[in-house]
């Protein structure tokens, strides 16, 4: 019979909630390291899909801002996960031009290199069976606001409520932006869909 080891002194028990952990980090800053361990990989994945090589720097900045701003976090108002993605998304907005160039580069390169997994994931979530270069162009053409909602839903897989918290907007606005963003992507790719359906 195996028994789990008790936590080391000063280390939080593994089942502690994110909210409790963040609250405890106010008195014991070392506790924040567990928040980083829990969420740095998924935040990095989200950022790398949006801004590429800038992701490493933005992950560091995301968690630095979260650490400094943790006194303003209100337990129960928002999941810690959504709060972190909100910080990350605000940082992406500072690099909106880099992100748009990145999608346009995907579009240009799609005919010359193997299709990327990340654009395929977006295609799956918006029911697109189109060429990835056209999808990249469609994403680049979205407004920053619509793209943020679409990619938080797609890449980070946040719920409507979590996206609302992350972006500090009403859930109804999340729904309308997601609907609009998906619609614009579909409109951009509609000719390709028809071609695919006709030849299927």
From TrEMBL:
Record-linked Pfam families: Sigma70_r2, Sigma70_r4_2
Domain of life the protein comes from: Bacteria
Family: Belongs to the sigma-70 factor family. ECF subfamily.
Biological processes, Gene Ontology terms: DNA-templated transcription initiation
GO terms of molecular function: DNA binding; sigma factor activity
rRNA processing keyword on record: no
All copies of domain RNA polymerase sigma factor 70 region 4 type, residue ranges: 133-184
Protein name per its UniProtKB record: RNA polymerase sigma factor
CDD domains named in the record: Sigma70_r4 (cd06171)
Cross-referenced InterPro entries: RNA_pol_sigma-70-like, RNA_pol_sigma-70_dom, RNA_pol_sigma70_r2, RNA_pol_sigma70_r4_t2, RNA_pol_sigma_r2, RNA_pol_sigma_r3/r4-like, WH-like_DNA-bd_sf
Keywords: Sigma factor, Transcription, Transcription regulation
SUPFAM superfamilies cross-referenced by the UniProt entry: Sigma2 domain of RNA polymerase sigma factors, Sigma3 and sigma4 domains of RNA polymerase sigma factors
Occurrences of domain RNA polymerase sigma-70 region (ranges): 36-101
